[in-house]
Amino acid sequence: METIIQVENLKKKYKNSERAAVDGISFEVGKGEFFALLGPNGAGKTTTISILTTTLSKTEGMVKIAGYDVEKEASMVRQNVGIIFQNPSLDLDLTAEENIRLHVSVYGVYPYRPFYSMMPAAYKQRIEELAEIVGIHENLFKKVKGFSGGMKRKLEILRSLMHKPQILFLDEPTQGLDASARQSLWAYLQKIRKEENMTIFLTTHYLEEAEEADRVCMVTKGKIAVLGTPDEIKRQLLGDRSMIIGASDLTELKEELISLQTDFTEVNDALKVTYQEQTPQQLLSQLRTPLTRLEIHQPTLEEAYLELVQQNERE
């Protein structure tokens, strides 16, 4: 996979601070990858994403975005990224289209014209395509002050994609949205990612949003704590998966598990069994003892994150 984000020994230390906010982190992100950066408040997430998007200078290290150095070639970096920050930056007294038109002219994507009808055909085609994808086509020429939180987020996504960025940076993109709006927004983001072959770089406090990431990087105290797929991180922080099984003849079930060399512990007249397979089906298919109870626990990324935070507090 082609590398589109390259970070090597990145450090950022603020003036008069005792320790570095970002302390020598290194990672790479591939083109088209969905990459999530997670960590508690003060871990260095916002500082990292600010450096990657050229809004903050680094102290040491090397960062390249789409092959361009973030400091030496900042303007080229900005041409290749789209950014959606926590707090909306829309003019509520303008229409959705006017917000977009102003944005693309400021960034030099298209020359500014006072009316939509005067804008280039390429602009009109792009805005029409994206408005259909994100679902605000019918509201494109309405004032933003009447938009819901979800509609404003969709508008920000549309605006950030007008120049066909290779990377979309999302900093808490669904903060303040209800569950339905978050689900709808992610459906649009995944659709856009597929159609545009775009890299998504996410920071979020909604851990379930990172479950679908190709890889997750968890940071604490400015350093990388774990980096890998969601399943790899869960296994590293939480150990093997487990399930609770029970049977009328618990002794027979124990003997069978022993013969299969499967680890288990007795819990309230049942057995807690650990397994390493992606699903418990392989183990269950080998059991001959009739089961009277089966409870399968699938660890979540949120549980792994909380375990990391607790480890960090104990240190």
UniProtKB/TrEMBL annotation:
What superkingdom heads the lineage? Bacteria
Pfam annotation, one family: DrrA1-3_C
SMART domains named among the record's database cross-references: AAA
Query: What keywords tag this UniProt record?
Result: ATP-binding, Nucleotide-binding, Transport
Query: Which molecular function term from Gene Ontology is one that the record holds?
Result: ATP binding
All residue ranges annotated as the ABC transporter domain in the record: 5-246
The Swiss-Prot or TrEMBL record describes its family as follows: Belongs to the ABC transporter superfamily.
Q: What is this protein called?
A: ABC transporter ATP-binding protein
Q: Give the organism, scientific name.
A: Paenibacillus polygoni
What is the taxonomic lineage of the source species?
Answer: Bacteria, Bacillati, Bacillota, Bacilli, Bacillales
